[in-house]
From TrEMBL:
Keywords: Cell membrane, Membrane, Transmembrane, Transmembrane helix, Transport. GO terms for molecular function: ABC-type transporter activity. This is ABC transporter permease. Belongs to the ABC-2 integral membrane protein family. Residues 152-377 form the ABC transmembrane type-2 domain.
Length: 383
């Protein structure tokens, strides 16, 4: 009998086009939007205009090195456009303007006793400026080394002596401890997958409150359907919906953005546990709220608040210490952590057992509350 209730719910959901948009199309749009935007931050698509007043081999070499080290696309402007570019910076339309003044080559070569300089006009609020300054300093460091090398060669130093003099006093032995490098997409795809699992609760609330309002719940007493069978059937229906939703979103991330899912067995265990958790909490909310509006408010608080605290929109590492502690008390944190452990750190099922246990605990608490409150829900349907 529970299965017949689930089948009925699936048929109703398939007839509702809005549900398809809310549970599948909208999360896909979010993944595309934020994956595309965040995935390109700091990339070569960001352009920085420059004006070369020196027009020397030294200035061209400097600009070429800067473009390679910064990753930005340097766009040349005419000297007559200088005032216009500065106006664009003040209006917030440009981040910076780099000017290589006349006499740059003489300063680099040390002629005339003047130090080479460049002028950087910038908007200090732009995220482009700090990496650009770091790249300029990096190029300047390379030029300084070249100058020192020339002076040492002129002093008659040998090649080995030059190498020893210019060698860095610090060496970095890079020893990665994760299976693959994480990026914005590996944050966005599992993050929005977890987030929209909890939006399934909205459909659950509408259905439970709708059945109670229309009298369908009260009519269960006149059928062979047991109340617990009705509850299990409704839970089964949305559990399958959550499983399908997670599968579609993760598959989209894999094929559209080449997100490496890692151990599929561990992913499957995580998706099942997450779906049980989300729908279990959903059942509890359905049994506790008195109306649809109240249920929507609870759901918005759970989904949006949990998304922020759980690190679905940005890594938990960016949060203050107190917020990091609070994040352990929301299920979204454990789901996102498990996804990151599998996809980025290469963990298998054994490595995510603590996260699965935490999600299972949230699920058990939700189901227990739903069972304890179900009698009151049925009684209110008869009033």
């Amino acid at each position: 009998m529970a299965l017949s209730i689930a089948v009925k719910e699936w048929k109703l959901l398939l007839k509702e086009k809005g549900t398809f948009f809310w549970l599948l199309l909208m999360p896909v749009l979010f993944i595309v939007l934020f994956g595309s935007v965040l995935g390109n931050l700091g990339g070569s698509d960001v352009s920085v205009p420059y004006i070369d007043l020196d027009k020397s081999a030294a200035s061209q070499s400097f600009l070429q090195a800067l473009g390679e080290k910064s990753g930005y696309k340097l766009v040349e402007k005419n000297p007559g456009e200088r005032d216009d570019q500065l106006s664009r910076i003040r209006d917030g339309k440009e981040a910076a303007l780099l000017v290589v003044p006349q006499g740059f080559a003489n300063g680099v070569s040390g002629q005339g006793g003047e130090q080479a300089s460049v002028e950087l006009y910038s908007d200090p609020t732009s995220q482009t400026v700090a990496p650009l300054k770091a790249a300029i300093e990096n190029v300047a460091g390379g030029m300084r080394e070249s100058k020192i090398e020339g002076a040492l060669m002129a002093a008659g130093e040998t090649g080995e002596q030059l190498q020893a003099a210019l060698a860095s006093p610090l060496r970095i032995d890079d020893k990665p401890q994760v299976a693959s490098a994480g990026n914005a997409v590996t944050q966005v795809v599992p993050g929005y997958t977890v987030m929209f699992v909890f939006f399934v609760i909205i459909s659950m609330i509408r259905r439970f409150i709708g059945d109670k309002t229309t009298g369908m719940t009260a009519r269960l007493r006149t059928t062979r359907m047991t109340p617990i069978g009705y509850l299990l059937g409704m839970w089964l229906a949305y559990l399958v919906v959550a499983l399908a939703q997670c599968s579609v979103l993760l598959a989209f991330g894999h094929f559209a953005y080449d997100v490496q899912l890692g151990d599929l067995g561990a992913i499957a265990a995580l998706v099942i546990t997450l779906a049980v958790c989300g729908t279990g909490i959903g059942l509890a909310i359905c049994m506790l709220v008195r109306g649809e509006n109240q249920g929507m408010a609870f759901t918005q608080l759970l989904t949006m608040g949990g998304a922020v605290l759980g690190g679905l929109w940005f890594p938990v590492e960016y949060m203050p210490k107190a917020m990091k502690t609070v994040s352990h008390f929301v299920p979204q944190y454990w789901a996102q952590k498990a996804f990151q452990d599998i996809m980025v750190r290469g963990d298998h099922l054994a490595g995510i057992l603590p996260s699965l246990a935490a999600l299972a605990a949230f699920a058990a608490a939700g189901l227990l509350v739903a069972l304890l409150r179900f009698r009151g829900f049925m009684k209110s349907a008869l009033d």
